[in-house]
Write a structure and sequence with these properties.
8-stranded antiparallel sheet, single chain, Jelly Rolls, 5-stranded antiparallel sheet, globular, binds 2-oxoglutaric acid, alpha+beta, 17% helix
């Protein structure tokens, strides 16, 4: 569970860094298990894993146990339950971002958009955020490596940043923006933030790849962002606790499969 100070800082800034959240051995296993998927072609599938975008490999939990272990990892489960509301969770997106030189993510989101799905909410000493992002570094991320950027406090902003004169979903390059900070991490550190904070990432200028795992947690009634469904094999492998976060409710269907019967 977060401490009183962490609650205060999360409320104030909209993000926390959890140092050494995942052990070196586990990070090594995640990287090893991920390696064969990094060469997947854009749009390609490997079992239920999908290269959806140039830098993003989605449905990553299907890769195996090392990724399954992250679902309810003890380093952050208490934080997620506290900040997304403790009446049940759902992961609506799970992917890895593998970025080489030149890659960046433009600054987007911000509380001025007033989106319900990504909202920051606190009431009666309970956080009820719509989406908590858990971003785990699989490589060290220092200056020039394309670190994640956030504008602390922008999860409560009413106005769009004056550097951006439109209100489209991508509001501009994160670098050089007054108020934005770059988060540097060691492999195994985790950054946790409410999705309505304005965020993106700096351009990678160094050789090699930056690798991060991103799991987006929300309340149990959420829906997969891109419509992915867990495979039967994954559901069978998962512990009951993990299955509840991946599929909070088992689908309820008419066993006769008729769509023409009405009361
Ligand atoms: O890759 C990053 O550092 C930022 C990720 C991000 O902006 C997002 O997932 O919305």
């Amino acid at each position: 569970m977060p401490t009183e100070l962490e609650d205060y800082l999360f409320d104030l800034r909209g993000y926390l860094v959890l140092e050494k959240a995942v052990s070196t051995d586990h990070v090594h296993q995640l990287n090893t298990d991920l390696d064969p998927y990094v060469s997947m072609k854009l749009g390609g599938w490997c079992q239920n894993v999908h290269r959806l975008k140039e830098h993003e490999i989605h449905n990553i939990i299907e890769i195996g146990e090392s990724f399954e272990r992250l679902i309810d990892h003890p380093s952050w489960l208490g934080y997620i339950n506290r900040y997304a509301g403790s009446d049940g969770l759902f992961i609506d997106e799970a992917f890895v971002n593998v970025r080489g030189e030149g890659g960046e993510t433009r600054l987007h989101s911000g509380a001025h958009k007033r989106r319900v799905r990504t909202q920051f909410r606190f009431h009666n000493n309970e956080f009820r955020c719509g989406q908590i992002v858990l971003l785990l570094a699989l490589t060290d991320i220092a200056s020039g490596d394309g670190g994640t950027m956030v504008i602390p406090g922008s999860h409560k902003s009413n106005l769009v940043h004056p550097a951006f004169n439109d209100d489209s979903s991508q509001i501009g390059s994160a670098e050089g923006i007054e108020g934005a900070i770059e988060v540097h991490m060691k492999a195994g550190d985790a950054l946790l933030f409410v999705d309505c904070i304005a965020h993106g990432s700096a351009k990678r200028r160094n050789d090699g790849d930056r690798r991060v795992v991103i799991y987006r947690y929300g309340p149990h009634w959420g829906h997969s962002r891109y419509g992915y469904e867990p495979s039967a094999a994954l559901l069978k492998r998962l512990t009951q606790e993990r299955r509840k976060i991946i599929q909070p409710l088992a689908p309820r269907r008419n066993s006769s499969h008729s769509i023409y019967q009405f009361n």
